[in-house]
Write a structure and sequence with these properties.
The protein is α/β, with parallel strands linked by helices. The chain has 10 helices and 9 strands. It folds into 2 domains: 174 residues, 3-Layer(aba) Sandwich (Rossmann fold); 62 residues. 37% of the residues lie in helices and 22% in strands. The longest helix is centred in the last third of the chain and has 16 residues. The radius of gyration is 18 Å and the shape is globular. The chain binds adenosine-5'-triphosphate. It comes from Stappia albiluteola. Keywords: ATP-binding, Nucleotide-binding, Transport.
């Protein structure tokens, strides 16, 4: 019974279907020989990765595989120990970061109202947005009635949706998300997925970290599977779920330990 209802949940489709890919894709990403190590551990161990187009990429892998570290490296929040990351042929710098947005697993919000959290983030980037536009964005994530509430008093799920609204308000060319739906209820998950599909359809390049196989099935167009800091597999989503090619990915999906 549990399995059948879980499968039904997995099969709910997000309503916004992605638009066809534009002819000229922006923000191609090329990663070569990427290493990130500390004196105690090599966390990212020679990653080569090319994401030439804006297909929605889901980054998967077991706990401790290095997914969050990889996302931070891509966004330029960490400096590689070796190797290169090139966005549009250039290493990530302040300008790259300003054209991107990142949503962290733990919501990070200011002691201000919901609306003023959006306004503040827009102000930092010198962007404008009318109150009506901000309310419409909040509405898409079910937050419009909470617009004037202190952000820190929202529930965990509401805060996570606000973080996504704030990221989307910046109209990023690239959106990096680190388990944005961890601990959210199904309705919140659906709102987030629909917002992501809209952004995807509008041309935003999305890289999403998730452990939720059902979510990955619903939204992914490409899967990158990371294991012990190395890429074990890069596959189109359909083939990944039908016949994951790497033993690591198969073990992960079967719930077998991967350490
Ligand atoms: N800034 C850091 N300095 C040193 N070690 C770190 C740092 N960030 C993460 N680590 C270590 O790197 C490894 C990978 O961490 P990371 O958070 O990237 O894993 P993950 O794949 O995102 O895992 P999870 O699925 O549990 O979130 C872990 O062993 C972690 O302790």
């Amino acid at each position: 019974m549990l399995e059948a209802s879980a499968l039904r949940a997995a099969n709910h489709r997000v309503e916004e279907a992605p638009a066809p890919l534009p002819a000229a894709e922006r923000n191609p990403l090329v990663v070569r020989g990427l290493v990130f190590e500390t004196p105690r551990q090599r966390i990212i161990d020679g990653v080569d990765l090319e994401l030439p187009d804006n297909r929605l990429t889901v980054l998967m892998g077991p706990n401790g595989a290095g997914k969050s570290v990889l996302l931070r490296l891509l966004h330029g929040l960490l400096t590689p120990s070796a190797g290169t990351i090139l966005w549009n042929g250039k290493p990530p710098d302040g300008r790259t970061r300003r054209s991107q947005a990142m949503v962290f697993q733990a919501p990070v919000l200011l002691r201000r109202s919901v609306l003023s959290n959006l306004r503040f983030a827009l102000g930092l980037r010198g962007l404008g947005c009318s109150r009506r536009e901000m309310l419409s964005l909040l509405g898409m994530l079910g937050l419009e009635p909470l617009a004037d509430r202190p952000a820190r008093l929202l529930s965990g799920g509401e805060q996570q949706r606000l973080c996504l609204a704030r990221a989307l308000a910046l109209r990023p060319e690239v959106l990096l998300l680190d388990e944005p739906c961890a601990n959210l209820d199904p309705a919140s998950v659906l709102m987030i997925e629909e917002a992501l599909m809209k952004a995807r359809a509008a041309g935003t390049k999305i890289i999403l970290v998730t452990h939720d196989l059902f979510q990955a099935r619903r939204v992914a167009e490409r899967i990158v599977f990371l294991h012990r800091g190395r890429i074990a597999e890069i596959s189109p989503a359909e083939s990944f779920f039908d016949t994951a090619g790497s033993p690591e990915a198969r073990s992960y999906m079967e719930g077998r330990i991967l350490v």
